[in-house]
Amino acid sequence: MYKVLLVDDDDITLFELRKFRDWASFGFTIEDEAYDGSGALNKLSSKMFDLIITDIRMPGMDGLEFLREVKEKNLDSCFVIMSTYNEFEYAQQGIRLGAFDYIVKPVDENVLGKTLGRIKECLDKKKQQRVKIAENNFRFCYPQRQETRLAELLMAGNNEIKEEASLTCLEVEKLTNQDMYKTSFLLKKMIINLCEDIYKAFPWINTLEEQPTFDDVFDHVTSINEIRSNFMKCINNLLEIIIKYELQHSDSLVKKTCIYVMNHLEEDITIDNVANEVYISKNYIGKLFKQKTGFSFTDYVTKVKMEYAKRLLVTGVYKNYEISNKLGYCSPDYFSRLFKSYTGYTPIEYKKMKCVLIQN
User: Fold this and answer.
1) According to the model, what pLDDT value does residue 360 have?
2) Residue that is last in its domain, among 188, 215, 244
3) Nearest partner of 150 among 118, 191, 205, judged by Cα
């Protein structure tokens, strides 16, 4: 999502812009607001915005002064200026200063939508050009050795990956001479590759975990420290996925057992099923699984099914009893008890809580 800053001293205009329903469908999200140019500059000192929509006439620092300040600071944000019909001369000045477009107040939703469509197309092209240039520049110096080592540690669920990731950050920063864009580009590419490795090796993870995107994590940073911190968070998140589903085990029988569970989430899974699949006694499988993972086969099945239930609940598509049936449980009450025991919430409570978090 491209981040938007709204700048206007008129609360009604800000309200009208906020209530426009199609921001997300055009690929934008309103990140912050300011009431004049000075306030907007303060916001820009700690955060980057892809699009700034600003009024021209405001008390204090007006839109044109604000635009001049931003251009002098070489901040790479797209500008749209707002004006009334009798301020067209000011709008022309804004265009000469580099504004992408202007819209007339009060803002018409159809006009706003068409403007956002053009801006997204422009921002997409600019982003593709930056990526292409960066890929060409770094083709012969990409830290492949570090990525390979991180991939090995990640797949093994080895906590040493945290130290290795920290060293990788230092290597990349040295390689780029701490250039923020170059550092961000290389570390983002590395995380994307590691993520793709996991989802390629274990494709059924898509059923349980939403594949992350990293644009917001790496494309809107304000310091090298923030890039490093975000990289480490991404590494930790990927490591948590590996450990959560016991994917780190090298023992082939344990791995086969986990894969069987993942591939039969919507069935009544028993250890007898697994035993028949791998031609080994259920007692041996149960003992080995407990020894290697620390919990029983039944607990693992419940854990994975409850993670799947969480994903299904958040979609808002399924009712409680439908999810129960989908997971192979005969009784919705039994499913609810399992879910409450696993998450601390009933399915209904969990769904409401997640909806509130998403809206905020």
Assistant:
1) 47
2) 244
3) 191
The last residue of one of the domains, among 112, 135, 158, is: 135
pTM above 0.70, yes or no: no
**Mean pLDDT lowest for which of 165-174, 194-203, 210-219, 242-251?**
210-219
**Co-location of 129 and 170 in the same domain:** no
Give the pair of three-digit tokens for residue 19: 């209530």
Chain-centre distance for alpha carbon 62 = 35
Query: Which residues fall within 8 angstroms of residue 142, CB to CB, at 6 or more apart?
Result: 186, 189
3-state secondary structure of 244: helix
Instruction: List pLDDT tens digits, range 219-256.
Output: 777 789 999 999 999 999 999 999 988 888 877 888 88
Give the C-alpha separation, 207 to 176, whole Å: 37
The phi-psi region of residue 27 (left if phi > 0; otherwise alpha if psi is between -120 and 50; otherwise beta) is: left
Letter for the amino acid at 14?
Answer: L
